[in-house]
Amino acid sequence: MIALATVLLGLVVVIFGADILVRGSVDLARRVGMSPLVIGMTIVAIGTSLPELVVSVDASLKGSPGLAVGNIVGSNIANVLLIIGVAGLLYPMECPRIALYRDGFFMLGASILFVGVGMTGPYGFYYGIVALAILAVYLIACPWFDAKRGRENPLVAEAADTGGFKSVPMALLAIVGGLVGVVGGANLLVSGAITLARVAGVSEEVIGLTMIAFGTSVPELATTVAAALRRQTAVALGNVLGSNIFNILGVMGVVSLVAPTGLPPQIAGFDIWIMLAASVVLLPFLATGWRINRWEAAIFFVAYLAFLGAQAVGPTIVMDQVGTYWASLASAVLP
């Protein structure tokens, strides 16, 4: 119970610390004359995935790759299956063509790169450099193309709505307090998760893929649900795609530079393929009618529940059962 309470406390502190840190940073940047474009592409872009970033880096430095990589893979699975499922059940999600042709396919390409590197070796220095360079090009190119076509970039719009402190000292206090909260909360979260895995007799990968991944995805879930309730479903979808891109390239890129990390066997054999499959399946769903209807969202939500069920039962047992089923089916059909 103490370990579980530590994990939950760490999650709360990380999430609130990241929110305060981003708000203070945006407010200070605005006061010193930075443009909304620069603020959106730097502070807001990093801030939306800050919980995943600090938790994964802390876990990797503590020698827990299952937590570090599991958090990233689990967050991306939750973003597609859970967040789109919940938001789409509340209100059908419109899909602008640019969300599919640019962000959707970019997310798929980043996912393929992530899987390819993980299956051939550890995520090391070269992956970190390449991933961060690709992310930088993406963050610079997207607003430029949006401006040429007269579209408002979601990160720029989010930057305009963030901040609100009354003075520079208050903004600085928020930055310092938020930074302390993020680092301290991440340390509590990772330490509690390691202890919880030992006490409960489950792997760190399962804790990272489920509890920590869900917790660090709560800001995206809240933002996406709020956007869906306001009927701003295109913004909601953009948040999900952008978060997945930043997790794979930004978060894993930084982790690779700080502490090279290999892909744990359980994640390599099961979970990373679920993440890739979710990214692949999402694209045709977006292209059919250019929206996610409620029945389609229900499929995504049920798929996430099935993923959680597989973690509870054990991916190895699930794969063995699936293999046995297909073998018996093949023997019944084939002569």
Note down, in words, how this protein is organized.
This protein has one domain (2-328): Up-down Bundle (A middle domain of Talin 1), CATH 1.20.1420. It is built from 14 helices and two strands. It has a two-stranded antiparallel ribbon with strand order 1-2. Helix 1 packs antiparallel against helix 8 (168-200), helix 4 crosses helix 9 and helix 6 runs antiparallel to helix 11 (233-258). The protein has 335 residues and is mostly helical. It is globular and about 75 Å long. It starts with a helix and ends with a helix. The longest helix is centred in the middle third of the chain and has 33 residues, at 168-200. The model has no long low-confidence stretch (mean pLDDT 79).
What structural keywords apply?
335 residues, mainly alpha, A middle domain of Talin 1, globular
